Amino acid sequence: MTQYFELVCPSRPENVGLCRVAVATFAANIGFTLSEIEEIKVAVSEAVSNVVVHAYPATEGLIELGCREIEAGIAITVRDEGVGIQDVALARQASFSTDPERMGLGFVFMESFSDDFHVESAPGKGTRIEMRKRREAPAEGA
Amino acid sequence: MLEEAGKPVQIAIKRQGRTATARLAGEFDLTAAPLVREQLDGLIDAGMQRIVIDLRGVRFLDSSGLGVLLGRYRRLSERGGSIYLVTAAEGSVRTVLEMSGVRQVMPLLASESEVPRA
Ligand SMILES: Nc1ncnc2c1ncn2[C@@H]1O[C@H](COP(=O)(O)OP(=O)(O)OP(=O)(O)O)[C@@H](O)[C@H]1O
Ligand SMILES: [Mg+2]
After folding, report:
1. Within 10 A of A65 (CB to CB), how many other CB atoms are there?
2. What is the C-alpha to C-alpha distance for residues B2 and A3, in angstroms, rounded to an integer?
3. How many Å separate Cα B15 from the centre of its chain?
4. What ipTM describes this predicted complex?
5. Average pLDDT over residues B26-36
6. pLDDT over 80 (residue A128)
7. DSSP 3-state assignment of B71?
8. pLDDT digits (tens, 9 = 90+) for B61-92
9. Contact B76, B108 (CB under 8 A)
10. CA A20 to CA A63: how far, in whole Å?
11. Shortest Cα distance, chain B CAs vs residue A23, angstroms
12. What whole-number distance in Å separates Cα of residue A47 and Cα of residue A57?
């Protein structure tokens, strides 16, 4: 069986760090380099922060994080059952934010720091992000 | 790596005339954002004209931290002041700062001694 884990937790700010460290540890165990792990941490932080900040405006909901080893590297999914995104193409553009205090860079970082990036979302149906990243070189002795 | 989990951000502030230096350490993310925002806003409200933010002790920065920095820049520049960021030449914090374009409004310096004299 390939290595994987799932983590479900409430959409609270302190769980952003929890998800980030969980994925970073997993990535280290399957042979990612330190600089790749730095990028993975930013991407995960952005996806999970978006759930905390945007998905459940009036309530608390769940962050569902999934992580698995794939042949080329790692596949990370971040899901919520929150409000969803009206226009995904627009939301993915740099500097687009529905919050005037934010920079609208989360999607830009997720996309830049992964090799393969997908967003599925619909208003009222929640959002699912999938990011895949390849390892630089095959893991040695892992 | 595990010992990083849940470590709150730390801020040390030094004031000299109307210049303040805020040295941050730890992880500057969504959890840290409210505390850092409050501390920096306190300096702006106290009339500081130049704020030097030393990010060399920050091991992690994402868009939530960037948003706090840019928001403070907006507030302080309305009052005619400026913000300088001190950061290491390499690493993920530097990469994230470069990608965000914040250096167009806040210079990225290698050390506090590079801050232009008032
Ligand atoms: N999980 C989500 N649920 C609902 N809306 C979302 C979700 N993720 C993103 N969005 C929407 O997409 C927009 C763009 O997201 P992005 O992360 O790029 O920027 P941001 O979160 O607004 O700002 P930043 O990430 O720079 O703090 C958000 O402003 C929000 O409207
Ligand atoms: Mg975001």
Report:
1. 24
2. 19
3. 15
4. 0.94
5. 97
6. yes
7. helix
8. 999 999 999 999 999 999 999 999 999 999 99
9. no
10. 12
11. 11
12. 16
In this prediction, residue B1 has a pLDDT band, given cuts at 50, 70 and 90, of very low
Residues of B in contact with A16 (CB under 8 A): 29-31
Q: What is the pLDDT of residue A129?
A: 98
Closest ligand by atom to A103 CA = 1
- Residue B21, token pair as written in the block: 């230096």
Helix (H) or strand (E) holding B38: helix B33-45
How far is the C-alpha of B72 from the C-alpha of A69, rounded, in Å? Answer: 40
Among candidates A25, A45, A49 on the partner chain, residue whose Cβ is nearest the Cβ of B2: A25
Q: Could you tell me the two tokens for A15?
A: 């769980």
pLDDT score recorded for residue A1: 81
> So where are chain B's domains?
9-111
Helix or strand holding residue A40 (H, E): helix A34-50
Domains present along chain A, CATH in parentheses: 4-134 (3.30.565.10)
The superfamily (CATH) of domain B9-111 is: STAS domain (3.30.750.24)
Contact A99 CB / ligand 1 (< 6 Å)? yes
* Residue A111 clears pLDDT 80, i.e. is over it: yes
Report the candidate in A9, A64, A72 with the shortest Cα–Cα distance to residue A36.
Answer: A72
- What are the Cα distances from residue B72, in Å, to B37, B45, B63, B68? 8, 11, 14, 6
